[in-house]
Amino acid sequence: MSLLDHFKSVPTITTDEVRSFLDEHNPEEYNLVDVRQPGEYEAEHIPGTKLIPLGELEDRLGELDPAKPTVAY
To answer: What are phi and psi of 70, to 5 degrees?
Structure first.
């Protein structure tokens, strides 16, 4: 299984659209992933975000629920 097997192609959405999505859904209904480096995450992140640096993403995909939409930034 490759990294791409876990993600479906979706259009890019604006920050306002992401904000609306997060406001309208229970955090248990989606995966929210911060793919930046730990220092960037520690400086500021969206509450409830799971830190998985981009370089580790493929090895840590098992931590995400593939049945849920994933928002990554």
So the answer is: -120, 130
Reported pTM? 0.78
Per-residue pLDDT of the chain (73 residues; tens, 9 = 90+): 666 666 666 668 888 999 999 999 999 999 999 999 999 999 999 999 999 999 999 999 999 999 999 999 9
Q: Which CATH superfamily is domain 3-72 in?
A: Rhodanese-like domain (3.40.250.10)
Identify the three-state secondary structure at position 66.
Answer: coil
Q: How far apart are the first and last CA of the chain?
A: 23
